[in-house]
Amino acid sequence: VGHILYSPGPVSLGYRWAEFHDGSGGSNGTNVDAYAVAFNVSDEMKVSFATQDREYDVPSGTNVTETTDAVNAAYTVGAATVRATFSEATNLAGTTGENDEHMEISLVLAF
Description:
single chain; mainly beta
């Protein structure tokens, strides 16, 4: 597993690489490449985009790559933060044709 984050001013760029195997011959494993960029629009508003490719090793067939893309935003006023995330995944959990979409809006209050 490796991760690097670079934050020049209001922008943050991140990259992550990982490889998982159980150590036995002919077993399934996964390889992950992920990228993200975040931007602090102001002290109150933040937005980000992230993408991740997770390749599932299939010893008896063709490897399958799950791709997940997400857009996030957060707006803070005083002690309240409204957050939103929208994501889409294709070939979910290494299953070809299994897709998923996710939308979440939340309110966080700090006391």
